[in-house]
């Protein structure tokens, strides 16, 4: 556990946490894409995988600016969220229903990431690292977009999914 005395210490820790989360996602998102039946959903995951790889590179750039190492921390929260996503992928049943479940897991991932980026951005802003703020904001916008896309696909699937009335 790192000693936290200043905003810079906490920011460094948040960046390490995000780095671990994004790295885990580069392995988890392909599984979510593969496990999705709806072609639109699959494409959304595949597109976001590319963004995620970029976000990893962006965090490496952030770490370079802050003169820290991005490695050395494991984001236990994301590990848990991904674990739940893996459960959604193992379910059996109606394709649309299973896809909606996978979207629920994906949406949790995006919200978790958004919370991390929002925290890091507010800390970076306070330290005056404007270039770091700009980089983190780019990733935040991508997470927000990904969440919106998932929500839209879910709305369509829910409308046409079988239900007991
Ligand atoms: Fe991400
Ligand atoms: Fe994301």
What is the succession of H and E elements? Answer: HHHHH
Number of helices: 5
Radius of gyration: 17 Å
- Beginning-to-end CA distance, first to last residue: 53 Å
Largest sheet: none
Rounded average pLDDT: 96
Q: Strand portion, in percent? A: under 5%
Residues in helices, as a percent range: over 70%
List unreliable stretches of 5+ residues. Answer: none
Bound molecules: fe (ii) ion
| DSSP strand count | 0
**Class computed from helices, strands and strand pairing:** mainly alpha
Shape: elongated
Feature tags:
165 residues, mainly alpha, binds fe (ii) ion
List the helices and strands and how they pair.
Elements: H1 7-35, H2 39-66, H3 76-90, H4 95-127, H5 130-160
Helix pairs in contact: 1-2, 1-3, 1-4, 2-5, 3-4, 4-5
Bound molecules: fe (ii) ion (2 copies).
Could you characterize what this model shows?
This protein is mainly α and 165 residues long. It has helices spanning 7-35, 39-66, 76-90, 95-127, 130-160. It is elongated and about 55 Å long. 37% of the residues are buried. The model has no long low-confidence stretch (mean pLDDT 96).
């Amino acid at each position: 556990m790192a000693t936290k005395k200043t905003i810079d210490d906490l920011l460094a820790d948040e960046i390490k946490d995000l780095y671990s989360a994004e790295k885990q996602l580069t392995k988890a998102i392909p599984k979510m894409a593969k496990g999705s039946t709806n072609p639109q959903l699959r494409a959304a995951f595949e597109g976001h995988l590319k963004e995620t790889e970029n976000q990893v590179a962006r965090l490496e750039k952030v770490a370079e600016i802050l003169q820290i190492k991005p490695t050395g921390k494991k984001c236990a929260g994301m590990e848990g969220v991904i674990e739940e996503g893996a459960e959604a992928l193992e379910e059996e049943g109606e394709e649309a229903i299973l896809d909606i479940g996978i979207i629920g897991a994906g949406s949790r991932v995006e919200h978790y990431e958004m919370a991390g980026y929002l925290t890091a951005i507010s800390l970076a802003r306070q330290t005056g690292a404007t270039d770091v703020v700009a980089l983190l904001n780019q990733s935040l916008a991508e997470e927000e977009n990904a969440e919106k896309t998932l929500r839209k696909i879910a709305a369509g699937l829910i409308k046409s999914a079988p239900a007991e009335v």
